[in-house]
Design a protein that fits this description.
about 350 residues, alpha/beta, Quinone Oxidoreductase, Chain A, domain 1, seven-stranded mixed sheet, six-stranded parallel sheet, 16 strands, about 30% helix
């Protein structure tokens, strides 16, 4: 990567200089984001099978933050440009790219890195058209949260109409997607969160009941769930948090219930005693939605088609909680680290 540093508050350099563009570059892994800096990156010619896109919006996610610390399963070689999910506009097409769209087409861009920049080079397989009716910001934030919710609740947990779904981290992007999808599927949705303000967002997105963990704590979750379900418990738990909430969730499940493990945002990776699984007849289901699609490409493609359809129908529309310009992207990472975000944080050029 050929680049030169540029001041983070230098708006004149925002779009880049002739032959260069601005990108947020990670040159060192760190817990405090000190390895990130804005740089001018040299623009290179396209290979015949490549496509150049101009970024319109990039959604920040917890995996992006973990990657800057070296704590995510994907570890790109340094230096790299963070950012997995984005919406962009095609500006140049290689002669052998196989792109069926013209310049100017809005597209959703997928990838493990490269989105926190003013432009990037991609291949045809990384692009798909933006579903009708979605803004740039919604399109940027759609894929990972939508596919994670869909694979978790439909493919793996097989959530049924009339069942009760408990969603942890319900004010985050993936949590809100699970709330909206669960309600759409006909489940009774109970959302947990760390404040009344965050839970108000979950309720506005379809949660039927909410549990404020700042009041009851993980230790009081089981009793509160028993109160809400007439002592029955819940059929499915959607858990991107882990830690103490995972432990409490085991005790909230009915006989034959399913606990879907999506992540460990709390920082502690929990464990469960095998006798609990046996005696209670429960299932603990791990979900890596991207890996699901890679292992089963046919269903993976079907998942994307269904997520786009649900987005067009208004079911999986992402909640954008904070908008920032690209040159304040590090501030967005800081809010993610401090658990101060509701919905998705999106940065735009």
């Amino acid at each position: 990567m050929s680049s030169t540093p540029t001041a983070g508050n230098n708006t004149a350099a925002a779009a880049g200089t002739a032959g260069h563009y601005t990108a947020l570059v990670c040159r060192a892994l760190s817990d405090d984001l000190s390895g990130l800096a804005f740089e001018q990156v040299a623009r290179r010619p396209l290979a015949p099978d490549e496509i150049r896109v101009r970024m319109r919006a990039t959604a920040l996610g917890f995996p992006d933050l973990l990657m800057t610390r070296g704590l995510y399963q994907v570890k790109p070689p340094l230096p790299y440009v963070p950012g997995m999910e984005s919406c962009a506009e095609i500006i140049e097409i290689g002669a052998q790219s196989g792109a069926p769209w013209p310049c100017g087409q809005r597209v959703i861009v997928s990838g493990k890195e490269g989105a926190l920049a003013h432009e990037r080079i991609v291949r045809r397989t990384q692009l798909r058209p933006v579903p009708e009716g979605l803004s740039d910001e919604q399109a940027a934030a759609l894929t990972s949260q939508g596919v994670t919710a869909y694979v978790s609740l439909v493919r793996r947990a097989q959530l049924e109409r009339g069942e009760t779904l408990l969603v942890h981290g319900a004010s985050g992007g993936v949590g809100l997607a699970a709330v909206r999808l669960g309600a759409h599927l006909g489940a009774r949705v109970i959302a947990t969160g760390s404040s009344a303000a965050k839970l108000a967002v979950a309720a506005a997105n379809g949660a039927h009941e909410t549990v404020d963990l700042s009041v009851v704590g993980a230790g009081g979750l089981r009793d509160r769930i028993r109160e809400l379900t007439a002592d029955k418990g819940v059929d499915v738990v959607f858990d991107p948090v882990g830690g103490d909430l995972f432990d409490a969730s085991i005790r909230c499940l009915i006989w034959g219930g399913r606990l879907v493990v999506v992540g460990f945002a709390s920082g502690r990776i929990p464990s469960v005693a095998a006798n609990q699984i046996l005696i209670r007849g429960i299932s603990v289901i791990g979900v890596r939605a991207g890996e699901y699609g890679r292992r089963d490409p046919v269903r993976g493609a079907e998942n994307i088609i269904e997520v786009d359809r649900l987005a067009r129908a208004g079911v999986l529309l992402p909640h954008i909680g904070l908008r920032l310009p690209l040159l304040r992207a590090i501030e967005g990472f800081e809010k993610l680290a401090a658990r101060q975000s509701v919905g998705r944080i999106v940065v735009t050029p």
